[in-house]
Structure formats: structure tokens, C-alpha cells
Design goal:
Blueprint: H1 2-9, H2 11-23, E1 32-34, H3 37-42, H4 49-57, E2 62-65, E3 70-73, H5 74-78, H6 85-96, H7 103-113, H8 116-128, H9 146-161, H10 175-186, H11 191-207, E4 210-211, E5 214-215, H12 216-220, H13 223-227, H14 230-238, E6 249-250, E7 256-258, E8 261-263, H15 281-291
Antiparallel strand pairs: 1-3, 2-3, 4-5, 6-7, 7-8
Length: 303
């Protein structure tokens, strides 16, 4: 597990993840643990709670359920040791009591590794304890978010393909993708905003291939990384996508802004009429002589 995941998430998230996996081995299922801010604070990592939760949200091989505050390491689920019938029954009961959304997939993967008689006992205990088995054929229902979520996932895959050698996250949205997109929409953003954030983050990664010795394209250009923290989303939205020039942004109240500042139109006023100035007769006569104009008839010439 550490060989694949630890280099991606860093030392503190690895420490927290391994600690909780060991502590929860007999509480849930080996490979599943609770991941909450309160637990990180008790571990003495209160200064890095947000960074740890955000780092673990976007790692391949992990699935984080932000609502149940739980995480699963799929490699541990797929390569776990074999189970006897009593062990499988206890495993099924603990798994059925877990509130995480990924439990049905965990049950399916565990059941596939068991012998037929043990698998039958595991399935019966899982259903009896309230667990919901993953249906072989998904129910037919209209998913209003499905098409937009699929478009975002395809955009993520396309943008990552522009960086050779980076991992392919696939075109199918994961439960973590969906949960984070739903949370982002609930904050008032739109799927168009999320797409723009993805393109802006890809342009930023192209301009800055490395940041603090981190491969920006591998880590930054992913839905889960951008949406796991609202600050990251705002910064990604502030990045200008490749090929897009800075333009004028118009707000609903009529104000307009350009990169240099706010645009304010000067008021156009009618020019004031020019009124001829009246001079005293002696001054007018002198001005007439200086300009070469004839003096008025009512003015006598000087002798």
C-alpha cells in the first residue's frame, strides 16, 4: 500500500492513514478506517487537518466518503488474506454496520475471493445484518447529474492526456467524484464553473510543471484535488485557460472590470459657448494695432 500511495500523498497523510488502518482493523474491515477531523486532532495533527483531508481525497487507489468520514484502500481489499466461515460472518456483520457508500463494492470484492460455501455464509450474514448487496443490473432511473458528471470526467481525462506519462483516471466518475461535485454545486457553483476550473488548472500546471518538487500535472489536474477544498476551486477559477485572453468581465449590476481595474465611462457634457471678452476702448485700440486689425470707427487714433 505504501509503495503506491505514500509517494503521492506525503508523510503526514501516510502517517494518519496507516495509524487509522491499524486501529480500525477489527472495528470495520482490514482496509477501511474512519477519517475525521476530530480523529486527526486527537492524533496531534490539528495544524494540518485540511491539508490531510484534501490530500487523501484525490489519490488513485483510495475512495473517501466525505459524508460518512471513512476511507477504503482497495489494494488491501483485493489482496486480503482468505477467511474461514466464522471470520467471514463476523466480517460481513461489521461491514453491514458501516455507513460508508462503498460498502456494497467492498462486499462484492471480498465475496469474489471466498470459496463457494464461505461466500454463501458471508452473503447471508451481510444481508441479515442489513447490508445491501450490489445488484448485478443497476436500477433504471434518470440521473439528472449523470450526463454533466460524465462530461466533466471526460474533460479531466482529455486534459490529463495532454501531459505525457501521467496516470489515466478513466472516464467513469467515482463515488468521490460525485460526492465532491454535489457538494460544490450546493455551494452555488455550476458544472460550467467546475469545467473552467479544470481547464484553468491544466493551464497552470503547463506553466508550472513543478511546485515544491511536486508534479503539478499529476496532482493538480484532477476533479477530486480541485473540489476537495473551496480555496483550491477559487484559485483554479482565477487561472486563465490556455488560449484565452484576458477580457472584460461584466457584472449583473452593470459594472465592468478589466485586468487593470474597473472600467468607468466619462460623462459627456456639451461644450460651453465661447463668449467674446469686452475690453476698455483704449485696450481694444491697442489690441487692434498689435493684431493688424483696423481700429473701430468710434475710437480716435492716438497721436
Amino acid at each position: 500500500m505504501t509503495h503506491k500511495i505514500a509517494p503521492v500523498i506525503g508523510h503526514l497523510p501516510t502517517l494518519a492513514l496507516l495509524t487509522f488502518l491499524v486501529e480500525d482493523e477489527h472495528r470495520f474491515v482490514p482496509g477501511i478506517c474512519e477519517l475525521s477531523s476530530q480523529r486527526l486532532i486527537k492524533l496531534g495533527l490539528d495544524f494540518a487537518v485540511r491539508d490531510i483531508l484534501a490530500a487523501l481525497a484525490g489519490v488513485p487507489g483510495l475512495t473517501v466518503d466525505p459524508y460518512a468520514e471513512m476511507v477504503v484502500v482497495w489494494e488491501m481489499i483485493d489482496h486480503g488474506r482468505g477467511w474461514s466461515k466464522p471470520q467471514a460472518i463476523g466480517l460481513a456483520r461489521r461491514l453491514a454496520a458501516s455507513p460508508a457508500s462503498f460498502c456494497s463494492e467492498v462486499a462484492r470484492r471480498i465475496r469474489a475471493r471466498l470459496s463457494p460455501d464461505v461466500a454463501e455464509a458471508f452473503t447471508a450474514a451481510y444481508k441479515t445484518s442489513g447490508g445491501k448487496a450490489r445488484p448485478s443490473v443497476p436500477p433504471r432511473h434518470v440521473d439528472p447529474l449523470g450526463p454533466a458528471l460524465a462530461d466533466l470526467k471526460r474533460l479531466e481525462q482529455s486534459l490529463r492526456a495532454d501531459f505525457p506519462g501521467r496516470s489515466d483516471l478513466g472516464a467513469s466518475p467515482s463515488p468521490a467524484d460525485r460526492a465532491l461535485v454535489v457538494r460544490t454545486l450546493a455551494m452555488g457553483y455550476t458544472t460550467a464553473d467546475i469545467g473552467r476550473a479544470l481547464r484553468g488548472q491544466a493551464a497552470s500546471a503547463a506553466r508550472k510543471p513543478l511546485w515544491s518538487c511536486e508534479d503539478t500535472a499529476e496532482s493538480w489536474v484532477r476533479l477530486t484535488w480541485i473540489l476537495s477544498d473551496v480555496g483550491r476551486l477559487r484559485r483554479a477559477l482565477s487561472e486563465r485557460p490556455a488560449g484565452e485572453t484576458a477580457g472584460v468581465v461584466a457584472l449583473d449590476d452593470g459594472r465592468r472590470f478589466a485586468p487593470a481595474g474597473e472600467i468607468v465611462e466619462a460623462r459627456k457634457t456639451a461644450p460651453e459657448p465661447i463668449v467674446a471678452r469686452e475690453y476698455r476702448p483704449d485696450i481694444a485700440a491697442r489690441l487692434a494695432r498689435l493684431t493688424g486689425e483696423a481700429a473701430p470707427e468710434h475710437m480716435p487714433e492716438e497721436t
